[in-house]
Amino acid sequence: MTLNEKFDNILNMKEKEMTFETALKRLEEIVTSLEKGDVSLEDAINLFEEGIHTAEICKAQLESAEKRIKELIKNSDGTFSLSDFQFDVK
Amino acid sequence: MEEKVYTVREVTRLIKKIIEQGIGFLWVRGEISNFKAHPSGHFYFSLKDEFSQLSCVMFREENRKILFKPENGMELNTYGRIGLYEKQGVYQLYVYDMKPVGIGDLALRFEELKKKLKEEGLFDKEHKKPLPDFPLKIGVITASSGAAIQDILNILSRRAPYIEVIIKPVRVQGEGAAQELAEAMKEFNEYKDVDLLIVGRGGGSIEDLWAFNEEIVARAIYLSEIPVVSAVGHEIDFTISDFVADLRAPTPSAAAELAVRDKKEILDGINHLLQTMKRLLFSNFEQKSEKLKSLTKRYGIARVIDMIRERKQMVDEYERRVISKVSYLYSIKLQIQDGLYKRLNGLDPSAVLGRGYSITRRIPEMKIVSSIKDINLYDRLSIEFVDGKVRTIVDKKNLRTTEDSETKEKKTKNNINSD
């Protein structure tokens, strides 16, 4: 797979599929590739753009969460649902 | 004969000998009161029943081995020997071991289960799952009331507000607590969509924490495919669950701290990577342009560039030369034209005559005279003007000296007659 194909793969990924952890790892890989220094200028620019994009995905995930606290409920048919958690103040 | 008088010390020694040799080691049952854990590490307390009270001491070397916290009111079986403390003259029980009574001897059950599960390999390090580096969803199994859930949520919202928390409220003590804990663990493993589990509760007595020492809970933790962090009671409380869990946190707050990454820390990390990336890209640019520079400096390339420059210079040179040549030729042409014109003009004698000159010829041969030397006195001359001729006779002749050239002319003119 050429670098451009890899790049396309990442960009075409739905952001949902790109987990926070894979995105962060990818960002580290990009930096490592750039560190090797044997990258052509064109590839370097592509990597750089991909890195910016990946970092944005990570940051978005960190910022997105309004405080989400749910309660796990097992339904009688064996499926699960989440409801808002209520503190049980005694 | 006087009776022997003993010193206090001698009497004390006597009693000590009788008591210590006469009684020896024994088990004593009673309720703890006046319990004091001295900073030196020794325990001082009394055992009492409804009729009597017995002072007890348990030295640090012995009490380190017990697995529960003695508390006032607790019913104990203690093993030790009766001794006498000479300095104060009091007898007391030197305790070597103690076991709680009534709740089925929990410490013993604890030891038995611990030994059994350890032999089965439930505590093996190889079985412990690594915690995810960057969890986003955390399952929490604990009571919906109490300090544990509050502490966990406080820490998470402060350090990692990006975390989604899914809580399964359960009873954590009393009848059925162990079943609920195990069931919750199973449910999360069916649900799957959490990165790790925190299982725990706040501090309490050994009985309060007991559910976390039940085999069913230990096995549920062991079977979990989701990494489990145990967080039971305080730092000093160890439960079977702690030994099985992938990570033991000393408290629920600590579990939250250990499980997640600080948001700021992650953001700093990302920004650092971005900075490094920018720097590397920039240095890549620099490298390439340096390479370009050094290439142009190399002799071959430099020669080509020189040749181009030389050619350019030559072109300039040619251009300059052509221009100067052309303009030279042009100026020559102008000169020639002008000169020709003048010369052609000069060739027409009438033009000369028009400016006041005249042509003198000697009669009879009519030869043009250009020097006075060709003329003799009384020669006849024909003088041609622009508009006619006269005949004249030379009556005087002066070879020119500078001062009299004018008089001669005058003379000549004076002798002009119409022809």
Descriptive report:
The complex is a heterodimer of chains A (90) and B (419). Chain A has helices spanning 3-12, 20-36, 41-64; strands at 68-74, 80-84. In chain A, β1 (68-74) and β2 (80-84) form a beta hairpin. Chain A has a two-stranded antiparallel ribbon. Chain A is α+β, with helices and mostly antiparallel strands and 90 residues long. Chain A has one domain. Chain A has 3 helices and 2 strands. The mean pLDDT of chain A is 78. In chain A, 21% of the residues are buried. Chain B has 419 residues and is of the alpha/beta class. Among the domains of chain B are: 8-102, OB fold (Dihydrolipoamide Acetyltransferase, E2P) (Beta Barrel), CATH 2.40.50; 135-261, Rossmann fold (3-Layer(aba) Sandwich), CATH 3.40.50.10550; 353-414, no CATH class. Chain B contains 12 helices and 14 strands. The radius of gyration of chain B is 68 Å and the shape is rod-shaped. The termini of chain B are far apart. The interface between A and B is large, with 43 and 42 residues.
Structural class of chain A: alpha+beta
Helical proportion of chain B, percent range: 40-55%
Q: Estimate the mean pLDDT confidence of chain B.
A: 85
What form of chain B results from the Cα inertia axes? Answer: rod-shaped
- Sketch the major β-sheet of chain A: 2 strands, antiparallel
Count of alpha/pi helices of chain B: 12
Give me the Rg of chain B, rounded: 68 Å
Q: Outline of chain A, from the CA principal axes?
A: elongated
Kindly identify the CATH topology of the domain at 135-261 in chain B.
Answer: Rossmann fold
